[in-house]
Structure formats: C-alpha cells, structure tokens
Design goal:
globular, 7-stranded mixed β-sheet, alpha/beta, 7 strands, binds S-adenosylmethionine
C-alpha cells in the first residue's frame, strides 16, 4: 500500500468547497497542495512546520499551482496549532493531516516527537468538526518512532468513544508505517 496516497484518498471524501483543512506537518508541501486543490475558492488550508525551508518549499509549489491564496502557512510547532486558526474556523475543520517523522531528503534529526505530537492531537481533536477526519501516518522504524507510534495508539484508546477508526499497516513488516484514519463521531466535551 502507498500510505500517503491512501491518506489523501480518504481525506478527499471529507473535502467539499469551502472546507477548512489542516496540514500539521507541511514538509515538502505535497499534502498541503492536495488539500488546497480540494477546498475550493472559499476554503482554507492551515499548514505548519517547524522548518522554514519546508514552508518556503511548500509556498513555491502552491504559487506555481496558483493556490497559495487558499492557504495560511506558518513556521511554528503543531503543539500551538490553535493559535493559528481564526476563531470562526475552530471546531469547523473537515480534515487534519499528520505525516510524522522527518523531512525526506532533509535533516533527519528534525523529527516529530511523542510529547509534542500528543499536544498537537489534543488541539486537533477540538478543532475538528463533527464528521471531520483526522489522518495520522506514523513511522515506527526511525529513532523515537516506536515511542511516538505507541503514544498515538494510547491516545486513540483514550479517545475511542469519539472516533470511528480505520487502521492500515503492512502485516508482513513490523516496521511498516501505520496509517490511522479517524472520523470524529461524537462532539468533544466543553
Ligand atoms: C514526513 S515530513 C511531512 C511530509 C509532508 N506531509 C509532505 O507532503 O511533503 C514531517 C515534517 O514534520 C515536521 N515537523 C517536525 N516536528 C514538527 C512540529 N513540532 N510541528 C510541525 N511540524 C513538525 C518536519 O520538519 C517535517 O518537515
């Protein structure tokens, strides 16, 4: 399975014109571009990455596709995601995508980490609308990846009554990426 393609395929089912979306790990901007292509002219994609190089590269891609105006990108940690969203968009997010780990062909020491990812998931849970999709692609194979993957499984357990969950992994390979697709089926408590 090509996990990034599958993540986008499922995300597309939740995107309509005017949708609000989040790319919590912009990286090279492939998911940001995909989201921008599917939120329509009235929609908006919020995207963050801690590497300015990643945000600049994503901006170039979006500019070339004439879609930069559909995005709001910032060099910041997803631990502070809520600060980026306009109040009117909070609780209205249709899709939030996390593609964890490090930037391919980039600095492999700059990597998502368990504690910070957990904070970001807590934020995203509240930012999602009812019926919204949280997509998380985790890589247990890199240093710290197994701990992060275990944290996500635990986080999901803790939030199991709020999500309908699909989980994908290559069963032949214990280090295979894991893709969780979680649809919010119950409102969070105030
Ligand atoms: C696997 S890459 C993302 C690939 C991207 N979705 C794409 O389509 O190209 C993971 C990214 O997460 C970023 N990252 C690491 N820690 C982060 C954090 N706390 N907040 C936001 N982004 C972070 C890294 O800088 C890296 O660019």
């Amino acid at each position: 399975m090509h996990f990034t393609v599958e993540a986008q395929r499922m995300a597309k089912e939740h995107l309509t014109d005017g949708a609000i979306a989040i790319d919590a790990t912009v990286g090279n901007g492939f998911d940001t571009l995909f989201l921008a292509q599917h939120v329509g002219e009235a929609g908006l994609v919020y995207g963050v990455d801690i590497q300015s190089m990643a945000i600049e590269s994503a901006k170039q891609k979006l500019q070339q596709a004439n879609l930069l105006h559909r995005t709001q990108l910032a060099v910041m940690s997803h631990a502070n995601l809520t600060d980026l969203l306009l109040p009117k968009d909070q609780g209205q997010v249709s899709v939030a995508m996390f593609n964890l780990g490090y930037l391919p062909f980039g600095d492999k020491s700059i990597v998502t980490t368990s504690a910070v990812t957990r904070q970001a998931l807590d934020h995203t849970f509240r930012l999602l609308k009812l019926g919204g999709l949280l997509s998380v692609l985790a890589y247990p194979g890199h240093s710290g990846g197994a701990e992060e993957t275990a944290m996500i499984a635990q986080w999901l357990d803790d939030h199991s009554s709020f999500f309908e969950v699909k989980r994908f992994q290559d069963s032949q390979n214990t280090n295979s990426p894991i893709l969780w697709s979680m649809s919010k089926c119950r409102p969070h408590l105030p």
